[in-house]
Amino acid sequence: MSAHGSPVGRRWVLMNPGPVNTSEEVRAALGGPDLCHREPEFTSLMSRVRHKATAVCGGNAEHTAVVLTGSGTAALEAAVGVVPDTGGLLVVDNGHYGRRLYEIATLLGIRCVRLELGWGTPIEPDLVDRALAVDPGLTHVAVVHHETSTGMLNDVAALAAVARRHGRRIVVDAISSVGAEPVDIARDGIDWLVGTANKCLEGMPGLSFVCAAHTDFAELRRRAPRSYYLDLGRHYQAQEHAGAPAFTPSVPLFYAFETALDLALAEGTVTRGARYLRLADRLRAGLSALGLRMPVHPRHRAIALTAVELPEGLTFERLHRALKDEGFVVYAAQEQFAGGFFRLSTMGAMDEKDIDSFLAVLARLLPGQEVR
């Protein structure tokens, strides 16, 4: 700790699903030169970041990305706001973040139908098909790709196909998946894809983005916006045509995000996903050997997060405190899983040694062993 009590020089293995451990290159990039966001140097930086973010989403020449200074939730709210006043939104909800989509839409005054399936319940495309068939006023569908409340991965490509058959648009929350899980805006027929600099892209938290077709962004300027700061039409016009951000951005985060994107594109989504999966498989095998239960069926698990049932007699608070003392930060479960589960992420700059060390520490802390 520093003289002021900050954790300078200490490395915690962040097994929470974002912020994640980052590389030395990404952290070093934060120290780039002071730069005015209205100067051509920032215009060039912003354009490169937008281009690389589009590429990591699988976009082609028809697509672009708008980058916002704000967490992934900021970009998600901006994307949900594209639903027109005359439209409606079908929210597919099988976890905490599915419900968050519904709450955002409701607060924005969007007519919304919530297809509530229950936490950890796989999405059947036929249910979405029927919901759209009976309500032609639902112009858009919204779904979470990686539902981190449970660690479930939803088949967004199948849902996008259903939406296309009905002539509807789809908004995908890929905040916890883009960069490692198989999601591709062009291949999968996604209209609006939301991501963040952190999580699987291994950048710093504080920047997020929306990837979509140029034509869809441009069309937004013909509508009354639902928000001032989170008006995607405003941001697109500023970034695409004025070559400057609509509002003052976090310049250092752009430096770090470009470095993270360069690393992500060099590694590739398939290779990064395979790296995360090796860590997840190693972790899950160790958890099973310790007798710990994982509620989501292996066929539906995301590669980057695992929900785990707490052993009887051990609270999350005691487990978190003891693990943090040993250098590992784990995450509490939410709502329906709160009290009975905890969550472990394998995204970010961690390796097999981190997993093995974690499992060894966890084994010492299970009931029957003393927890400080």
Keywords:
alpha/beta, 16% strand, 372 residues, Aspartate Aminotransferase, domain 1, Aspartate Aminotransferase, domain 2, seven-stranded mixed sheet, globular
What does it look like?
It is a single chain. The chain has 372 residues and is of the alpha/beta class. The protein has two domains: 13-17 and 269-365, Alpha-Beta Complex (Aspartate Aminotransferase, domain 1); 24-266, Type I PLP-dependent aspartate aminotransferase-like (Major domain) (Aspartate Aminotransferase, domain 2), CATH 3.40.640. The chain has helices at 24-29, 40-56, 72-80, 96-107, 125-134, 156-165, 214-219, 232-242, 251-267, 269-289, 316-325, 352-365, and strands spanning 13-14, 63-69, 89-93, 112-116, 140-144, 146-147, 152-153, 169-173, 192-196, 207-213, 305-309, 328-329, 331-332, 341-345. The strands form four sheets. It has a seven-stranded mixed beta sheet with strand order 2-10-9-8-5-3-4, sandwiched between helices. Strands 11-14-13 form a three-stranded antiparallel beta sheet, covered by helices on one side. Strand 3 (89-93), helix 4 and strand 4 form a beta-alpha-beta unit. The longest helix has 21 residues, at 269-289. The mean pLDDT is 95.
Q: How far do the termini sit from each other?
A: 21 Å
Main sheet: strands, sense, barrel:
7 strands, mixed
Overall pLDDT, averaged?
Answer: 95
Number of strands: 14
Which regions contain 5 or more consecutive residues with pLDDT less than 50? none
CATH topology heading of the largest domain: Aspartate Aminotransferase, domain 2
Number of domains: 2
Q: What spatial order of strands do you see in the largest sheet?
A: 2-10-9-8-5-3-4
What percent of the residues sit in helical stretches (DSSP H or I)? Answer: 25-40%
Please identify the top-level CATH class of the largest domain: Alpha Beta
